[in-house]
Amino acid sequence: MHDLAPAAQRMATIVDGIADDQLSAPTPCERYLVSGLLSHALGLTVAFRLAAEKDPRASDNPPPENPAPAAELPDGWRVHLARQLDDLVAAWREPSAWQGDAEVGGISLPAQAAGTVALQELIVHTWDLAKATGQRYDIDDRSLRPLFTSLDGTVDENGTPGLFGPPVPVPPDAPLLDRTIGLTGRDPQWSPAQRQR
Q1: What are the sequence ranges of the domains in the chain?
Q2: CB within 8 A of 168, min separation 6: which ones?
Q3: Core-most of 52, 81, 99, 151, by most CB within 10 Å?
Q4: pTM of the shown model
């Protein structure tokens, strides 16, 4: 079992620091602008909560193959996302969440793997949002280590279509966060200015 609380709290903090005029900014997750990535976060927090609860609705609504870069966010989206993050953490604190199989967007996988992917989504996309909006992101190694372990040695040199680009080389003595981000095909030194070049 992983405690998703630190990663969820970091996402809530970063989201709270996003200004309305930053919603159209590019992110390191190339298929999304900030608004699109926030919409994705609204969806994934529900999907992974349902997976933890073994709710049959977890098999509904697979993610779109070509998600829109930008999105029209619902009224009160900050409040909704904060509540959904709390609900996600609570769901994955139940031992039953980690047992058997779980379904996320129509895909069945071992529950332990689903929990790790939930952690991955929180950490990586919060890093994306922080970079896109000029905020500092850090996360404790205890939260980060399971993600790094799950990626290290399993990431294909060509990336994973629809998920990750090819890994970005990062020095072995770099911080654990940088090494983890590099495995997801992102440049730890990414900036909006770099994207515009």
Answers
A1: 5-156
A2: 181, 182, 185, 186, 187, 188
A3: 52
A4: 0.91
Q: Which residues of the chain have pLDDT under 50?
A: 196-197
Separation of alpha carbons 148 and 134, rounded Å = 24
Query: At 120, which amino acid appears?
Result: Q
Write out the DSSP string of the chain.
----HHHHHHHHHHHHT--GGGTT-B-SSTT-BHHHHHHHHHHHHHHHHHHHTT-GGGGSSPPPSS--SS--PPTTHHHHHHHHHHHHHHHHTSGGGGSSEEEETTEEEEHHHHHHHHHHHHHHHHHHHHHHTT------HHHHHHHHHHHTTTS-TT-BTTTB-SPPP--TTS-HHHHHHHHTT--TT--HHHHH-
Residue 197: per-residue pLDDT: 42
* Model pLDDT for residues 66-99, shown as the tens digit of each residue: 667 878 899 999 999 999 999 999 999 999 999 9
* Exposed/middle/buried for residue 162 (C-beta within 10 Å: 0-12, 13-18, 19+): exposed
pLDDT of residue 57: 75
Please identify, in words, the CATH class of the domain defined by 5-156. mainly alpha
Residue 17 token pair: 């620091």
Neighbouring residues of 191: CB distance < 8 A, sequence distance ≥ 6: 131
Residue closest to 26 by CA, chosen among 174, 183, 193: 193
